[in-house]
Specification:
Radius of gyration of chain A: 21 Å
Distance between the termini of chain B: 11 Å
Strand content of chain A: 15-25%
Strand order of the largest sheet of chain A: 7-8-9-3-10-11-13-12
CATH topology of one domain in chain B: MetI-like fold
Radius of gyration of chain B: 24 Å
Shape of chain B: flat
Order of helices and strands of chain A: EEEHEEEHEHHHHEHEHEEHHEE
Helix content of chain B: over 70%
Structural class of chain B: mainly alpha
CATH superfamily of one domain in chain B: MetI-like
Oligomer: heterodimer
CATH architecture of one domain in chain A: 3-Layer(aba) Sandwich
Helix content of chain A: 25-40%
CATH class of one domain in chain B: Mainly Alpha
Distance between the termini of chain A: 55 Å
CATH topology of one domain in chain A: Rossmann fold
Order of helices and strands of chain B: HHHHHHHHHHHHHH
Number of helices of chain A: 10
Number of helices of chain B: 14
Chain lengths: 351, 304
């Protein structure tokens, strides 16, 4: 950890510009009996040191597979392809499983969706925390135990020393998720991928965990990739957001850009589906996006959202290009680049 | 601790039930006095025997009398050998135990690694080979396999003795024959357990934390996967101890199974009763041990 002390302290809320993770054209393919399912089809992504990058999308859009692909933890039969996956200057695709294992839990770590089943029921949480630390650091048991107690305290679990002797089944879901976060932080990673970290928890606990993640990021300065289907969660802790649909990113921008000026019809549709304080009058009907997600089997031509999009026209049969602002707000829609905002009508047509 | 006491209490209760069954089975299998008096005995002889052995008393009294003797290690006297049953069992049981332990070691050390390897790559060559081995093991009668080994290793190659119990070499072939029979079930349960556990979330967590594949496999996966295997193995072991009559006969290993078998054919009822009781108690003990081992493996089982 000594090397980390030399990193200059970050000023709050202003991520340093160096990209920690650069991903180009990431693809994940799942072979099935019915043919290849292209679950992730060409994702570009760059995460700067210290920033929180949100990935939002509905179930099955490929956001979890994207995160597992980054960690090289995909299911056995899934295939990963990419033009580039670079983490802290290292080409992850060139690393073998052993070298990847040296990184996992050490400089890149993960928090999962299912706190109830993500810890091994056969071992005490102390055992599990200590073994992660000792896997990556040459330290004795007592030093690793100290570290575990320290981190349990950091994630808001008091009486850490006593907790170390407890088994996962003796803890509540919220506590288990805190333990999971402590485990991910044991080696002070540069990047934490949090895959729906609060989905399985009560609403009150959700807020606590999100608050905790934000706090810990302030303290430890790691980058976070936050994967969620919940736009509200993203707005609370992310710096930048990507909206994912059918295995692709359709819009990327800062939280402010995306929330004040959603440009992709799918993004607008998503916002339309949730009540917004001060905008949605009480008793008003919420919107929905008609239709269903297209099949991800085989090649899709053109815009994947076209079948559900009110604005779809002939142009949408071709793959839409990215239109980007100078300030980094990018959207992948044929109609987005045709003017300042040709489809700027308030998103109220979703009936 | 509470868990241990509860299991122990349960085991004692089962043991009591077994003692009643063991006692009762003998009573309903025919008139004991007639059996003791022997063939061609007059009705006076039979009545005399009945009184002499206390068989004219009410059944509950007889049971309590028998139980108190049994608790002190007195299981009666063999009608054929004319020696105490406890002594006979004490002579023969070590042979059965040695055979059963060796067979168990053989079965587990073959089945568990095979099951793990098969689970690592389902439907691979190794998996198919293990499956083939399992099918053969289950399809081939034990006695046939034993005879095959006798022909090859005993008669042709002359590597191993084919009968008796003078040296440890005598136990190799019977232990393999007995153990091989138990291998397929243990292997398939290990395989199924490993496949299931390897797909669980906490295995993904362990990998996401960079733990080495050996650690993931043996520390995190195998421990959880073998829990059902432990229970099965305990039952299999009980079976090996008591049900090895065929193997014991083929190799002339005169263990407890063989003793029970010849005593049945001689109507030596006290011996049959004694062997049944002792084997049943061992069975209960094994189940208790399996429960405790499982509670150690999986702390969730310790909650009541």
């Amino acid at each position: 950890m000594a090397d980390r002390d030399t990193t200059p302290p970050r000023s709050d809320g202003a991520p340093s510009p160096a990209p920690l993770l650069v991903v180009r054209n990431l693809r994940v393919t799942l072979p099935t009996l019915g043919g290849d399912l292209h679950a992730v089809r060409g994702v570009d992504l760059s995460v700067r040191a210290g920033e929180t990058f949100g990935i939002v999308g509905e179930s099955g859009c490929g956001k979890s597979l994207t995160s597992l692909a980054l960690m090289n933890l995909l299911p056995r039969h899934a295939r990963r392809g990419a033009d580039r996956i670079e983490f802290a200057g290292q080409d992850l695709q060139a690393l073998g499983e052993r070298q990847m294992g040296d990184l996992r839990g050490n400089s890149m770590s993960m928090v999962f969706q299912q706190p109830m089943s993500c810890l091994n029921p056969a071992y005490t949480i102390g055992n599990q925390l200590v073994s992660v630390f000792r896997r990556h650091r040459k330290v004795g048991r007592s030093e690793a135990t100290e570290r575990a107690v320290y981190l349990l305290d950091k994630v808001g679990i008091t009486g850490g020393r006593r907790r170390l002797g407890q088994y996962p089944h003796q803890l509540s879901g919220g506590l288990r998720q805190r333990v999971m976060i402590a485990m991910a932080l044991m080696c002070e990673p540069d990047l934490i991928i949090a895959d729906e970290p609060t989905t399985a928890l009560d609403v009150t606990i959700q807020a606590q965990i999100l608050h905790l993640l934000a706090e810990l990021q302030q303290e430890f300065g790691m980058s976070i990739i936050l994967i969620t289907h919940d736009l509200g969660i993203v707005a609370r802790i992310a710096n930048r957001v990507a909206v994912m649909y059918a295995g692709e990113f359709v819009e990327v921008g800062s939280v402010d850009q995306l929330y004040s000026d959603p440009r992709h019809p799918y993004t607008r549709g998503l916002f339309d589906c949730i009540p917004q304080p001060g905008k949605t009058p009480p008793g008003a009907r919420l919107g929905f996006i008609p239709g269903i997600v297209p099949s991800l089997f085989g090649k899709t031509a053109g815009c994947a959202f076209a079948t559900r999009c009110a604005k779809a026209g002939d142009a949408c049969r071709d793959a839409p290009p990215w239109h980007g602002d100078a300030d980094g707000h990018e959207v992948r829609c044929h109609f987005a680049g045709a003017g300042p905002n040709p489809t700027a009508a308030p998103p109220s047509q979703g009936t | 601790m509470g868990y241990f006491l509860k299991r122990l209490g349960l085991a004692l209760l089962v043991a009591l039930v077994v003692s009643v069954i063991s006692f009762g089975a003998l009573r309903i299998s025919g008139d004991i006095a007639t059996a003791i008096a022997g063939e061609g005995a007059s009705s006076e002889d039979i009545e005399f025997t009945r009184k002499q052995h206390g068989l004219d008393r009410p059944l509950p009294i007889q049971y309590l009398d028998w139980l108190s003797h049994a608790l002190q290690g007195d299981l009666g006297t063999s009608l054929y050998f004319r020696v105490p049953v406890a002594e006979l069992i004490g002579d023969r049981l070590p042979i059965s135990l040695a055979l059963g332990c060796l067979a168990l070691i053989f079965a587990v050390s073959l089945a568990v690694p095979l099951g793990v390897v098969a689970a690592l790559k389902p439907n691979s060559i190794v998996d198919r080979l293990a499956l083939w081995l399992a099918v053969v093991g289950q399809a081939m009668p034990t006695f046939w396999f034993a005879l095959l080994m006798i022909v090859v290793f005993g008669a042709w190659l002359r590597w191993l003795p084919i009968s008796g119990n003078e040296s440890w070499k005598n136990f190799i072939m019977p232990a393999i024959a007995l153990g091989y029979y138990a291998t397929p079930a243990i292997m398939r349960l290990t395989r199924a357990g490993m496949i299931e556990v390897l797909g669980l979330d906490y295995i993904r967590t362990a990998r996401a934390m960079g733990l080495r594949s050996g650690t993931v496999l043996f520390k995190h996966a195998l421990r959880n996967a073998v829990i059902p295997v432990v229970s099965l193995t305990a039952v299999q072991f009980g079976f090996m101890l008591g049900g090895s009559i065929v193997i014991e006969s083929i190799f002339s290993l005169h263990g407890a199974g063989h003793l029970a078998w010849i005593s049945i054919s001689r109507s030596d009822l006290p011996v049959v009763q004694g062997v049944v009781l002792v084997l049943a108690l061992i069975y209960i003990l094994l189940t208790l041990l399996a429960d405790l081992l499982n509670a150690w493996l999986d702390p969730r089982l310790r909650i009541e």
